[in-house]
């Protein structure tokens, strides 16, 4: 998306989603990441945002899709674009990362080599999001292409359907991230609804929205500090409600931040590569004997955010690396002088 068309509030939300995601993976799930135990303030923070992190990422994807949604008879081009943007990095980044995790020493997650090689089909790491969103794009894109989403009523019916699927038990076999797709679908559709009604939301809830999100965040922090088991079930009516309300509250707030907007421009690279840099930070600091939780978290988050930005800047300079590792379109010619500082295109974002 060009700078003239870029929505600063959406880029800000993108940056916030990146920050929440990287913070979570630095702290890690229980027994992972920095192996921070229950009772630590960082553990409470990580657990409290379970209803917001990935729903917000997906809400933004749905919002932006609604701007550039498929029109006419160009489904083949739409399909090809999503394969390039999502599936190519899944093979070129996701599978190698999983293999590296399987054979590398000192990793927290025990991954078999065969599982790593098959991770393009059965999700292993955070790359499940690529598979899940690809399914969602294909499903919603087909409906749009066939003219089945041309009214607000049909869009709301799609949300009702997605909410019902969300509340069903997950499939026993998570082929190609289908469980992730059914989990994320209502938030994607909510993003579409948000884009269609963005002006009204900002007008009516610009003041109330931030207050609602702060109240939700404080409530989740309090509950997580009491008993994390009360909020770790993502696939629940409470999870669906809190996730959607939080996303709408953030959208209506019209929040803008230069720092978060800058991060938002690199959101896809941050998503793809943050774990690599966060794990490297953890390993290096561990070898240096640094054990302070605050220092480990701060350095991990800084590396997890800034490392992918640097890597993206390098990869974007060359067609070969930008296509394979970032899913970008191949340009006619790329030189150091004409590379965009914000390589993540909204039209192709995940």
TrEMBL record:
Membrane topology field: Multi-pass membrane protein
GO molecular function: O-acetyltransferase activity
Signal sequence extent: none
Keyword Acyltransferase: yes
Protein keywords: Acyltransferase, Cell membrane, Membrane, Transferase, Transmembrane, Transmembrane helix
InterPro entries, per the entry: Acyl_transf_3_dom
Localization terms from the record: Cell membrane
GO CC annotations, alphabetized: plasma membrane
Domain Acyltransferase: 9-312
Chief location category: membrane
Organism domain of life: Bacteria
Pfam families (UniProt xref): Acyl_transf_3
GO term, biological process aspect, one: enterobacterial common antigen biosynthetic process
Residues annotated as transmembrane: 12-32, 44-65, 86-104, 124-143, 155-171, 177-195, 207-224, 236-253, 260-280, 295-315
UniProt key word Cytoplasm: no
The family this protein is said to belong to: Belongs to the acyltransferase 3 family.
Name used for this protein in its record: Acyltransferase
UniProt source species: Pseudomonas kribbensis
